[in-house]
């Protein structure tokens, strides 16, 4: 493990020892103690064959942790099934981007993946749990990741793609960046108009889906799901209602001109996932405006 730690340090990563066959730090104040100093590394690992931790903040890393569901995990609302990789793929598609795996990637002992990226200088991105979606966590400032080669009871962390670490894609940075004014995309309407507005959005989007022509069905469904997903994210519309409404709207296209149920389901989930990350709320005009 000493060789692994020295190699990681040579790559500019600040490392510290983890307990043997574990992912728990073996030292206190691990983030400030993490180092690239070869002598300190030799001193730590000379005492025991410990695993290797990489402090993401000092190493300027943002690691996207893609989990796979445990067999006992409950299905998410709406009955969707998948994995962290599938959710990230849906987000990428909804953003009009390719799946961001052209970077250094490690497979975890439980079958998940760590995608390594260079973190932006600004904003500082800290650790998140589920912010990007179900089964996706991130490790940034204040967090650490277990390095490839480390061993746990479940198995070994292994390099899956030995590529240079890519910069974090801007679209992921945008999703992870806290917005100083979350009300910027909100609407202020009296209650009776709020309900009418939501009904109009649902009718308009589903009508567009139902009337979409061959060649435009994927894009139209994706856009409609994104619009309804924003209301779901703002807790103005129930997920199951949005999902079932869109499924009903697209029924007439299934099996026609190569448009399959699988494509429809994937597109629907992608759009909803994109929209949920960009919530739109409707506040009562009788309430005082939120302060920026």
UniProtKB/TrEMBL annotation:
Cited Gene3D superfamilies: Bifunctional DNA primase/polymerase, N-terminal
Domain DNA primase/polymerase bifunctional N-terminal: 5-172
Protein name as it appears in the record: Bifunctional DNA primase/polymerase
Residues annotated as transmembrane: none
Pfam families named among the record's database cross-references: Prim-Pol
Coiled coil segments of this chain: none
InterPro entries named in the record: DNA_primase/pol_bifunc_N
Domain of life: Bacteria
């Amino acid at each position: 493990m000493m060789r692994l730690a020295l190699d990681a340090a040579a790559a500019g990563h600040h490392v510290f020892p983890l307990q043997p066959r574990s992912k728990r730090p073996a030292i206190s104040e691990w983030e400030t103690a993490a180092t690239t100093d070869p002598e300190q590394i030799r001193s730590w690992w000379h005492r025991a064959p410990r695993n290797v931790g990489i402090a993401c903040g000092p190493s300027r890393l943002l690691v996207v942790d893609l989990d796979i569901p445990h067999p006992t995990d409950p299905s998410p609302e709406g009955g969707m099934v998948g994995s962290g990789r599938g959710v990230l793929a849906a987000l990428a598609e909804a953003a009009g981007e390719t799946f961001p795996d052209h970077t250094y990637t490690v497979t975890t002992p439980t079958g998940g993946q760590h995608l390594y990226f260079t973190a932006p200088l600004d904003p500082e991105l800290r650790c998140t749990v589920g912010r990007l979606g179900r089964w996706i966590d991130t490790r940034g400032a204040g967090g650490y990741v277990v390095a490839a080669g480390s061993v746990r009871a479940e198995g070994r962390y292994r390099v899956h793609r030995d590529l240079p670490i890519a910069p974090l894609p801007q679209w992921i940075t945008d999703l992870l960046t806290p917005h100083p004014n979350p009300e910027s995309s909100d609407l202020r309407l009296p209650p009776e108009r709020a309900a009418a507005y939501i009904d109009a959005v649902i009718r308009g989007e589903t009508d567009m889906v139902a009337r979409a022509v061959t060649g435009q069905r994927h894009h139209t469904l994706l856009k409609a799901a994104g619009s309804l997903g924003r209301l779901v994210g703002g807790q103005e519309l129930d997920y199951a209602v949005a999902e079932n409404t869109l499924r009903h709207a697209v029924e007439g296209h299934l099996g026609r001109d190569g448009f399959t149920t699988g494509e429809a389901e994937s597109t629907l989930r992608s759009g909803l996932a994109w929209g949920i990350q960009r919530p739109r709320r409707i506040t009562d005009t009788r309430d005082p405006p939120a302060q920026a």
